[in-house]
Amino acid sequence: MNSTQNERINQITSSTLIIGVDITKFKHVARAQDYRGVEFGKAITFENDREGFELFVSWFRKIATEQGFQDVIVGMEPTDHYWLNLAHFLKEQHVSTIGKFSSYTIFFIRAISNASSRLLTPSFE
């Protein structure tokens, strides 16, 4: 593990809500958990459009506020080009309206050798 990867891992603390998004062509599915893997709320399915993205952001903001998280990290696998609109929307939200959260980071999760082996590589920071 190199120092850059260690730095990324160290961004996840007990005050971080981790959001994992499964990207597909028309709909995405997201889950929320803490650094220990404890899940919060139910998974959400949302459309790959602005209305769906707004629903998604409202969903994780509500969980973060209710559970007392100060940081949010969104992770997604960059599947074809289907992730681009969501990533750009989230970047836009970070700049203008993130509000209560002290940090908001988007990570891409890339498979190394198989579906169970992942490497975090950051983007849009």
Protein described:
With 125 residues, the protein is α/β, with parallel strands linked by helices. The chain has one domain: Nucleotidyltransferase, domain 5 (2-Layer Sandwich), CATH 3.30.420. The protein contains three helices and six strands, in the order H-E-E-E-H-E-H-E-E. The protein has helices at 3-10, 50-67, 84-96; strands at 16-22, 27-33, 39-47, 71-76, 103-111, 118-123. It has a six-stranded mixed β-sheet with strand order 3-2-1-4-5-6, sandwiched between helices. A hairpin with a 4-residue loop joins strand 1 and strand 2 (27-33). The longest helix is centred in the middle third of the chain and has 18 residues, at 50-67. The chain is globular and about 35 Å long. Mean pLDDT is 76; it is low at 95-103 and 111-125.
State the helicity in percent bands: 25-40%
> Helix and strand succession?
HEEEHEHEE
Oligomer: single chain
Radius of gyration: 14 Å
Helix-strand makeup class: alpha/beta
Tertiary shape: globular
| Percentage of residues in strands | 35-45%
**Number of DSSP strand runs:** 6
How many H/I helices?
3
Q: Which CATH class applies here?
A: Alpha Beta
| Average predicted local confidence, pLDDT | 76
Known CATH architecture: 2-Layer Sandwich
For the largest sheet, list the strands in their spatial order.
3-2-1-4-5-6
Q: Which parts are unreliable, with pLDDT below 50 for 5 consecutive residues or more? A: 95-103, 111-125
What labels describe this entry?
Nucleotidyltransferase, domain 5
Topology (SSEs and partners):
Blueprint lengths: L2 H8 L5 E7 L4 E7 L5 E9 L2 H18 L3 E6 L7 H13 L6 E9 L6 E6 L2
